[in-house]
Amino acid sequence: MLSRPSSSPARPKADGPPDGRSLPMDAGGDGRIVVETGRDLAEHLRRLARASGEPIERLAADLLRRGLERERRRRRAEAALAGLTPRQREVARLAAGGRTNRQIARELWLSPETVKTHLRRALERCDIHSKADLRLLLSELTDDVPTP
Predict the structure, then answer these.
(1) Using one digit for the tens of pLDDT, what is the confidence trace for 85-132?
(2) d(Cα 47, Cα 22) in Å, to the nearest integer?
(3) Is 78-139 assigned to CATH 1.10.10.10?
(4) How far apart are CA 28 and CA 7, in angstroms?
(5) CA nearest to 57, candidates 68, 65, 69, 49
(6) What is this structure's pTM?
């Protein structure tokens, strides 16, 4: 991943290029950056290559591979969740956040048995086997997985 030397995360510019050449990327303190143009990306890669001693071609290929892999996982997660009912998605989101079936039942005014059924069906439809798998699946879409 490319890192940003400043202490504040990168922010996209509101006045980015109008011709659609903008290359948006995630921003945050975890080493992700925002790239407005190909020129910005090239500069970040040059800096990283100088700092790491790695060839710029290898760094660019790694960045592309990681981006494509992340997009593949995001699309898989979207497809899996699209097959759920709204209630199953709601139960799945709360379960992924670490809530117990009983806590979910209280929060949604359902019986624990109904929550168990919604969760079981959600896991089956997503072709996963546990709440931990569910958390990983949802994390591909958002960082907004609730905590208990």
Answers:
(1) 999 999 999 999 999 999 999 999 999 999 999 999 999 999 999 999
(2) 20
(3) yes
(4) 10
(5) 49
(6) 0.57
